[in-house]
Specification:
301 residues, alpha/beta, 8 helices
Length: 301
């Protein structure tokens, strides 16, 4: 039984990885999860300098998931290089570094710093607010997405995954822009913008007012967007958004994803990623599926 998938020349032992921002760099989870069982660990977003993140409160539970306005707090690329990459190299899993920034130059600085590091792929978080475009996210305008993708590809030594924002009118337009600019793969979806109000205090629950909605509530939207994107482009798609079980992951594979990432469910169940990987294997045995590629894009039209 073959569970291996290859994305942009990188072979993963199975199609299950972590979603950025929900797993740190694996250190906190390594006492629960055998990282060797995962196709890849995707790090929390890393910037060129440490980011303090947003003021608190910045996490709220909501029906069907959670809102977060962490603000991409991170210790910066120096700490990633000195601490996190050496830790992850101890395990037989691929390393994907998620990169964030407030300007194209910020992204390029991190990409260049990582050029000689033992990192397998880069995932570019284009849901960051673009300070030069009135704080609209890089991934919300096709021309901005094309520009940042092409400039990163010109500098990157590793294959580049562009992580798309779902907060757009047409996800296929964004997927095509990333592909046209040279992206090696795309991942989606990032969080949906949401809000929660405390009716007793008559105040916003999050200090930032809005936050990113993740968890089971967003899965139907994510499956739809992955299906649309995978049919709009020829590059591989990594699907995420509300995956909590093998059944959820298989939906994404059938919709056209070549791999899947488990995110918010890590907070609920720290064993989720390995359970998803093992559940896919059980499903393949049950239905006599010899190769994972029989599932990818396998929904009956």
């Amino acid at each position: 039984m073959n569970t291996k998938v290859t994305i942009a020349g990188v072979e993963f032992k199975n199609p299950v990885m972590t979603a950025s921002g929900t797993f740190g760099s694996g250190m906190e989870y390594s006492s629960f999860v055998d990282l060797n069982r995962l196709g890849a660990v995707v790090t929390k977003g890393v910037a060129n300098v440490p980011w303090p993140g947003n003021p608190v409160p910045r996490v709220a539970e909501v029906y069907g998931g959670m809102l977060n306005a962490i603000g991409l707090q991170n210790p910066g690329v120096d700490v990633l290089i000195e601490r996190d990459i050496p830790f992850l190299k101890k395990f037989d899993t691929k390393i994907i570094v998620n990169v964030c920034g407030k300007s194209v130059e910020d992204y390029l600085e991190v990409v260049e710093r990582l050029g000689e590091e033992p990192v397998d792929m880069l995932e570019i978080n284009v849901s960051c607010p673009n300070v030069k475009e009135g704080a609209i996210a890089f991934g919300q305008k096709a021309d901005c997405l094309y520009d940042i993708t092409s400039r990163i590809k010109a500098k990157a030594k590793q294959p580049v995954i562009m992580k798309l924002s779902p907060n757009v009118t047409d996800i296929t337009e964004m997927a095509k822009a990333a592909e046209a600019a040279g992206a090696d793969a795309i991942s989606l979806i990032n969080t949906l913008t949401g809000m929660k109000i405390d009716i007793h205090k008559r105040a916003f629950v999050l200090a930032n007012r809005t936050g990113g909605l993740s968890g089971p509530a967003i899965k139907p939207v994510a499956v739809r967007m992955v299906y649309q994107a995978s049919h709009a482009v020829k590059i591989p798609v990594i699907g995420m958004g509300g995956i909590g079980s093998a059944q959820d992951a298989i939906e994404f594979l059938l919709a056209g994803a070549s791999a899947v990432a488990v995110g918010a469910m890590n907070f609920v169940n720290p064993y989720a990623t390995v359970e998803v990987a093992e559940g896919i294997e059980d499903y393949m045995k049950k239905y006599n599926i010899e190769d994972i590629h029989e599932l990818i894009g396998g929904v009956r039209e």
